[in-house]
Amino acid sequence: MSTLPLAVRDSATMLRRNLLHARRYPSMTLNLLLTPVMLLLLFVYIFGTTMSAGIGGGDRSAYIAYLVPGLLLMTIGSTTIGTAVSVSNDMNEGIIARFRTMAIHRGSVLFGHVVGSVLQAIVSVVLVGAIGVAIGFRSTDATALEWLAALGLLTLVALAFTWIAVGMGLASPNAEAASNNAMPLILLPLISSAFVPVDAMPGWFQPIAEYQPFTPAIETLRGLLLGTGIGNNGWITLAWCLGLTVLGHRWSKSLFDRDPK
Questions:
Q1: Which of 52, 63, 228, 239 has the CA that lies 20 to 30 A from 86?
Q2: pTM here?
Q3: 34-41 average pLDDT score
Q4: Is the Cβ–Cβ distance between 59 and 47 less than 8 Å?
């Protein structure tokens, strides 16, 4: 069998394996999904009136519209922590050593993790989005093409951060370390424009919030779903995603291809 069909076949097998693991042990995914859901409910029903005063003039529905796109991106960052833990578990439980002795395509192990994680991230985004709609989020002006572009953006962001999470999992000595090392993926959205506009932050902090990958992605998603200005954020998001995907893939492949100790 030639290389490409072998890679596709083995990657599909590894994808089924990872999806079965996620189905049999859903606690990790549910725990990570609870973080953006709890933040969504907290900022809407506890802080919503105060926060909306500076954004929607006291209109809670305006703040919900502002908040939901940021929480959708935060959901992706949260979900990828589970990827880092899953990869680290595979490395430490000996299954990777066994895969190395089998006649399978080496890259299929990583691609199975990546595709499975991206699918889980998109499902999680849909669930959080459904909760957002249930509490009042509306996107009446978005066209079908803009919804499709928004889905493509979320998928691209999920792919980029999944590859980074895979590298973190491979570089970590155990699952606990992998979880800790991947925490920036959920902390970065907290210091982005997810909850308040960048220009409402302290002046010294604004560059930190503005020049990180989540802020342009959030502003692009808001533009697609709410009709706000996107400006250069779309191109900046694309550059971040492509750069992180290439970096994460090369890093992960380098770590995976090392001879086992």
A1: 239
A2: 0.87
A3: 83
A4: no
